[in-house]
Design brief:
Elements lengths: L3 H27 L7 H14 L8 H23 L4 H20 L10 E2 L5 E4 L2 E5 L3 H24 L1 H18 L4 H27 L1 E2 L6 H14 L4 H18 L2 H4 L6 H15 L7 H16 L14 H10 L8 H4 L9 H12 L6
GO molecular function, one term: branched-chain amino acid transmembrane transporter activity
Main location: membrane
Protein name: Branched-chain amino acid ABC transporter permease
Length: about 375
Amino acid sequence: MAGGYAAGLALKIMIYALFALSLQLLVGGAGLVSLGHAAFFGIGAYTAALLTPDGGPALLWWLLPAALGAAGLYALLTGALALRTRGIYFIMVTLAFSQMAYYVFHDTRIGGGSDGIYLYFRPEAAMAGGLLFDLGDDTVFYLFALACLALGWLFLGLLRRSPFGAALAGIRISEQRMRAAGYDTYPYKLTAYVAAGMLAGLAGFLYALKDGFVTPELLAWEQSGMALLMVILGGLRRPGGAVLGAVGLVLLQELFQSEAVFGDFATHWHLSLGLSIIALVALLPDGLIALPDRLRGMAARRGGDAGAAPVTPDGAPPGGGAAGAAAPAASSAPAGATAASTGTAVRGPAGAPVRDRAAALITSGGPHG
């Protein structure tokens, strides 16, 4: 494929964006912070490498489902136990399960041990004896990865707007209230956990095909931390934030590792990256996806200051009443009122309608109304 370095960088960004999207379903969707997500990423990659024969390409129709199925099965087995815990205990249990998988591949000969394993052929899609497309072609593989990312984003977008997504948002806001409303939250969380694991397995599958080499480091906790960092950097509440976080983090890594830009200091790229992330999180606590809203707000405030009406010494607008009376009227609703209980629509940042549906679920009589 033309444009070697740029195309390879774009492919890397797409794969990590899909990986971050899978974690966003847990963190931003259900409020489940996991440090073990790399296990599913690595299992998807190892499945692709181990099931590809040395003598020729495998069929995509069974290799891809095998990778997703292996990652989903491990997510089901580990999630069934991990989701019995909460908070910091959930984080530690997911980390433990991920490290268990890491050491299985690192300390045994299943996948070549610490040396890793090579994948010599990308799969091909054939049907009725005819070749539909071959992922061994770099252009075809690039488009396939782009299609996987687009489908992953579409899937999360539809899920977020579905009743299931509203229930997950309700769990994120207040699992206790969802339980009180009659919802059994465990199946919702487990379903989200397995779906996120399968999406991460898809990203790992693509990673194995991209590099043709898989090592146990793909399952290490650093990979989980990097995915979590992408979600936080981009913005927790919207899938687009995970994609922006992946773009930002990968580009920052490439920039700070460049000897052409930083010379010998490029060997200390971790320091530069860490300082940049601290600055970005401090300046944009809602993530990169909130940057346009922040800029519009700053512009509106500057415009408002330029045309501000004069005020009286006590800080009230001249003529008193109408503007001052609005605040008590707005605050006269009951303290616990929500969109569901007052009948009014709450308008805020993107994603507020989902929060409103979650609030409606919490304040309703349960899943059956």
